Task: structure prediction
Amino acid sequence: MSESQATWDLAPAPESIGHVHWEKSYGLFINGQFQPSSGDQTFGSINPATEERIAEITEATDADVDQAVKAARNAYEKVWSKMAARERGKYIFRIARLLQEKAREFAVIESLDGGKPIRESRDIDIPLAAAHFFYHAGWADKLEYAFPNRKPKSLGVAGQVIPWNFPLLMAAWKIAPALATGNTVVLKPAETTSLTALKLAEIFQQAELPPGVVNIVTGHGSVGAAIVNHNNVNKIAFTGSTRVGKIIQKAIAGSKKRCTLELGGKAANIIFDDATIDQAVEGIINGIYFNQGHVCCAGSRLFVQESVHDEVIHKLKHRMNSLIVGDPLDKNTDIGAINSKDQLQTINQYIELGKQEGADFYQPQCNLPAKGNWCRPTLFTDVAQSNRIVQEEIFGPVLAVQTFRTVDEVINKANNTPYGLSAGVWTDKGSKIFNMTSQLRAGVIWANTYNKFDPASPFGGYKESGFGREGGLHGLAGYLDF
Ligand code: NAP
Ligand code: MG
Result:
């Protein structure tokens, strides 16, 4: 079969949105209630697949952030830190169960607001978010067992700022461990994807979580900055770009604030000639085209051992031709909408740059919907290590391929990046996997798989990918003093 032949045509299978409810406008969630801002600014949340404005979101002011921090402090001192840990655990269990019950509704809203395929929000984002609450609920009254002989103590108020690529999941990664360790929270979602965080606030109300334990303030970057700079916040947990991570580090330098930063990445996905090639090709596809490449740990640099290069690229192009780009609500869709016009512009600039840098460019010629933000899966071969498309994070469905001959060569090339978040290794040999995992400077390394997450498994980076871990005992420790 030729590379350009699509393998099949599937009839549309759109998820119904009849059962889904969200408000047309949302206030700020402070002290257990939705309330208007002290200012009068609002902004629209856009469905990136249709360009429709689907809800009106409130822009918090500094005074609103201050009120949210006060509510969190008050709840921490009067209620949450005084409550028996097993009672705190019950609330977290309740949140997890409610989220599980409403999983379909959350999945649809996540896809509508953010553009990701329903198959992913349904099978990955929402179940993993619930799993994070379940996992951390279990730890709430067992912290002395998690950290024997160390007397774990909560920190106080955690200020949390999250990005748009996994909106609900990032909220769960932040809120669940903070609550399990006895802290209270002020969280800001990304401005393009506030809806599921606000729906989560409705779940907090239904779970009768005491007012002020979690507060959600929406808005642009300045709202994140107001949280970071607030002098009554004890810990900053940030996931986002390295650029903003650096601003945050400067802002809190010299203060006693604790901090974890989960930043950008430029992961190496490494295919040896003894790998099962078909399985590896699926892993490459999943590694970079999953969630439109809006993944900090995306396998955006592919390293293929020279002897299997032609076979891998041939199979990869063939598989790319069968990817369906389009309606995020369609269950057959593989690649949904790019989250925002700005991000689409950034990706397109990098694609142009890759062509100018002289790399070989390939895209399948699949149809794209007339309206919305779309990008075809993109492949650059024949790239040089110094090319910007190899060095910089693109955060879109763009893969850059290099070849290698020896293990030492690929380790050198893979580590030659300012980032160090994740990597993938595909080989038949366990010894090679252990050798690679001990030498690659990446926080998470997958072997013969890619993009797998579990609440018990710590996630985080080296170098400019940040510091601190989320998930597992390491994640809990980030919210505790000893
Ligand atoms: P971003 O621009 O850094 O934004 C992240 C969050 O910070 C958003 O809520 C943003 O608000 C807010 N923000 C902006 N300026 C701020 C400031 N000066 N002070 C405090 N907060 C501020 O990143 P993004 O474009 O949303 O997300 C993509 C980046 O996140 C990529 O680099 C990706 O690698 C990284 N990421 C990392 C991980 C990880 O675990 N390591 C996971 C996911 C994503 P607005 O939305 O209003 O701009
Ligand atoms: Mg949106």
